[in-house]
Amino acid sequence: MKLFLDGPERECERLALEFAATEKQIQAASRRAVSKLGRWMKSAILRESSRDTGMPRKALKGRLKMSVDRVAASTRVWVGRNAIPLSALNPRQTRSGVTAGPVQRRHAFMLPGRRGPVFKREGRSRLPISVQYEDISKDIERVLQTEIYAEAERKFLHFFRQELRWEKVKEGRS
Length: 174
Prior knowledge:
Elements: H1 9-19, H2 23-53, H3 57-61, E1 64-69, E2 74-79, E3 84-85, E4 91-93, E5 97-100, E6 103-106, E7 108-110, E8 118-121, E9 129-131, E10 133-134, H4 137-173
Antiparallel strand pairs: 1-2, 3-10, 4-5, 5-6, 7-8, 8-9
Helix pairs in contact: 1-4, 2-4
């Protein structure tokens, strides 16, 4: 899923006129604002998805990657939406099965020892067994659409205003 901010062009032009910024200052401010927006998106996705799914941030952190293209003034936040193994959610063996974070699997089991995958038998026989995962793609999708994308344009304008202000302060120091 891609997000393109097309709406704030008029607002950015208004801010540039308000601060009487040069083209060079506008480009520098927009590059830094885009970079800040990418970092904000990464932390906000992590925070909101952890809160919505009830899973620890540590389990979700490796699924977020960010890259910034300073020349094109664009940022890319990649979100991995594959299922998370229950072993990443601090699983505990219980009488009825395994509890891992907010997830409970009846008749699941762990091998003796502290860490390791959570298994569940596929049938009544001893084998085959399968490693248990928790699907998070729908939860992540909901977080992106309802909370992150709705806020991204406003945050970009906030960061752009901050950076234009900083450019004018730098200009005054020279």
